[in-house]
Structure formats: C-alpha cells, structure tokens
C-alpha cells in the first residue's frame, strides 16, 4: 500500500493517493473491530465469575472479593448465585446449571461430594462449597488460558499461507513492475497509463485477505467450541479433527458412565461377605473404576475390611495382589485366573454366562485357590448410541478398544453399534492406535487418565474429563460437558471451520482475479483497487466470524 501511495503521488495522482491511504485506514479499523468479536467470545467467559463471594470464617458469614478466595475456604452459594470458584459440595443439594461453562443444557444435580465449576449457576438450594482452586487456577481461567495459547499457535494451513505469502508479495511487486515497463517498451503504450495500472495491480495483489483467511477462521472456531464446552488445544488439532476417518473409544468411563456397580457376588468357598471383604481390602487404594465399585459394595454392606500389609501390587490389565492376614489375595481377570490354573470347567461356564449379560467378572484368588466371583456392570451413557450413529452419518468408522473380555465387549458393542476389540493391554491399545494411524487420521476418546499413552499416539486425543486438570492437559481436545455426543460435535465444528477457511481463500483469490482483469483493461482506479483489497479482507473476516454462531444442538 505504501509503495502504491507513493507511486500515485509521483505520477501526479496525489488525490487518489490520499483516498488510498484513507480507505486503507478505514479497512484496518473495520478489521480490528470485526476480529475483536472473536476475542470477545472468550473474554466473555471472565464475566461468568462473580466479583464477590460469601464465605464462612470464624463462624461468621462475610462477603469477600472472589479473587482472594483461598483453597479450603467454605463458600455459601445461594439459589440464583453463580459459583465463585471450583470446589466440592460439603453441605446441601441443588440443581446446578453448568451450561455457561460446559455447554451442558440440562441442570446437573449436585450433593455432598460433588465437584462444581466456577461460573455455574446454583438453581434451587443453598450449597456450601469447599474451594479447591484459586481464582487464577479455576476451570474458566484455565479454559481462557488454553484457548488463548491455541489461538496463538498456527494451524498447518496458516503456516502454508505464511510461507506462500513470503514468495507471493515479491512476485506481486515484480508483476506490477512488468505491467508498468513492458507495454510501453514493447507496444508503445503510454507510460503514465501503465504506471497507473501497475500501481492498481499492486494494491489488488496485497495479500492481507489471504493471510488472515485461516487464522480468523481458526480463532472463531476455537472460541465457538469453548463456549459450547468443546475445548480444542490448537489450530492443528482443529484442522485434523475434520480429516478424521476413524474414532476409537475406550469403554469404561467413555461409552459407559464410568460408575460401575457390583451386581453379583458368588462364593466358591466361604460366604459372599468374606469374598467381598478380601477383594475390597486388595482394591482399597485403587483408582480403577472396577476396584472402586468393589470397595463401595463392601462399604454398603457394612463389611469390615481385613488389613492389607505392604500395599497392593498391580499386574497391568490383569490383576491386583495384596498380602492380607490370611495370605496373598489377588483380584484378577478370568484370563489371569486361567493362567494360574485355578478355574474349573463349571466356574468357567458361570463366568461365560455372566459375561454374555454384558457384565465384567473378576476372580478372587486366595492362596492360589479361587474363592469367589464378582460381577460388575457399568451402564451405557444415554447418548452413546446416538453419538456413534452421528459419527457414522459423517462417514467415520467407529471402534471400541477395551481391556475387558470379549463377551462383555461384544455385548456393549452390540448395544452401541460399534466394532469391538477386546482383551487389550495398555501397550496393545497403543500399538493398535499407531497401526490405524499410519493409514488415515484417527481420534482416540478416553478419560484422559488411564488412556494417556493411546491419546498421545492418536492423530487427535479427545479426553472426556468433565473439566479436570488431567483432561485439560493430557489430550488435544476435551469435552467439558462429559457427553459422548461431543465427539461428533467436535468433528462437525472442525469440518465447518475447514469449509470456512476454503471459502475465505476462494473469496480472497476470486476477488483479486476479477479486479486484476478489470485493472489491466483500465476499468479499475486506485481507490477501487484498495476498496477491493480492503473489502476482501473485511468480507473474509466477517465470514470467519459466522463460526461464532455455530451451534451443535441442531446437528447431533
């Protein structure tokens, strides 16, 4: 623009030079205002945090600035108030509207022990919340930080256009120079006329619209996702999601609720309570959902647990063993029990029967003897089947990878409508993801904790972590509303963003091509040329901002 304006003055078109500078300045202002809307979409999240909070200190309830809340403070949240920070409910129960944070439209019931997020709205009952994060570390603050980082990182298309522009700009100046020089020298054209047309060509060739075509779309896509509980950590992940051909799901906590319950306790020796007590003692300090279910079942029956000496030792994907007063006790899979040769044909038949009902069976082995069976079932998420169908409608292959037995996996797979690969240890899951990823992009969906290696190996790792630290940090994308339906929504958003990028590129190059022709024929003035360039830039920005209104609710 500067070269063209100076050139216009040199050839005696000072008035047009002023118009060029003025229109360029107007265009810059319009671009800044339009681009600010994408940033505003994220910055609006900050306003979800109330300025003050009611806390209990020294037996009194006082009002303090929300930003000075400390971990461990007890905040009192009245009906209709927003939660001042992340925390755990220690008293009271209520429906909580988490839609401003997670995009979950249905209020979620919260009671003692429930996790709650800053910015959520307490609907109908007073809650006492133990603060778990300071203001700078709560879920909303982390989301804003991660999205801002993501917007600063360039997507592959943006990097390509940047490289292209480094060659494009000098080439445009060379072409403009040739337009000025060649016609007068070869065809005897008027120098002033062709100098004017060359300067107009230079203005039209300005790469501004092309350069911003991708980053504005990416920024808008990331902001739109964050506002709906779909957190994507970078333009590269957003682009790759739209190219995914296969989605692999973990079973527990992903396609299922992640809250398994004990359904059957079968004593092979002794009684049911004895079997459950030993199993719970072994699993007492476990983080695995099945182990927690066993401990909860024992606690629910009021069973006193035997003392475990020296902690538990895990055989990954197979069993957990601990030394109790009565000797060594293992809680393991039927495969582990078969390897130890402790199963009779009759017991194996009972295991098969339970597994065909979609239950997971563990064998309690004490002193190398199978003393009992415990069957556990984890119910499917209510949206799992619809989410898988939505992925199929997008032309995507679905797959379930699980360490569970083949019969249980097959029962779950039939209900959901996915292919299943069962009895996979963590390293086998990792290898399978890597194998599929060699032929086409694959996404892995897991809980962000037990599936960290597979999530990292996938083209895009998607964590269903409900906003936890691990989920936000482990994967390339996280579903804050903790619903499987978020997976097809992520992919739909990515496809919409990719489509928007190509629309922007076509718009930018198309307008330039049209005005290049009119310039060479003498029909375009300098002010029209800069108007075309500025107009293309503004149109590209406005088109990208359409993504801010992208809604997943009408799609899946």
UniProtKB/TrEMBL annotation:
It is found in: Cell membrane; Membrane. This is P-type Zn(2+) transporter. Residues 47-148 form the P-type ATPase A domain. It catalyses: Zn(2+)(in) + ATP + H2O = Zn(2+)(out) + ADP + phosphate + H(+). InterPro entries: ATPase_P-typ_cyto_dom_N, ATPase_P-typ_P_site, ATPase_P-typ_TM_dom_sf, ATPase_P-typ_transduc_dom_A_sf, ATPase_P-type_domA, Cation_Transport_ATPase_IB, HAD-like_sf, HAD_sf. Keywords: ATP-binding, Cell membrane, Hydrolase, Membrane, Metal-binding, Nucleotide-binding, Translocase, Transmembrane, Transmembrane helix. It comes from Asticcacaulis biprosthecium C19. Its EC number is 7.2.2.12. Belongs to the cation transport ATPase (P-type) (TC 3.A.3) family. Type IB subfamily. PANTHER family: CADMIUM/ZINC-TRANSPORTING ATPASE HMA2-RELATED (PTHR48085), CADMIUM_ZINC-TRANSPORTING ATPASE HMA4-RELATED (PTHR48085:SF5).
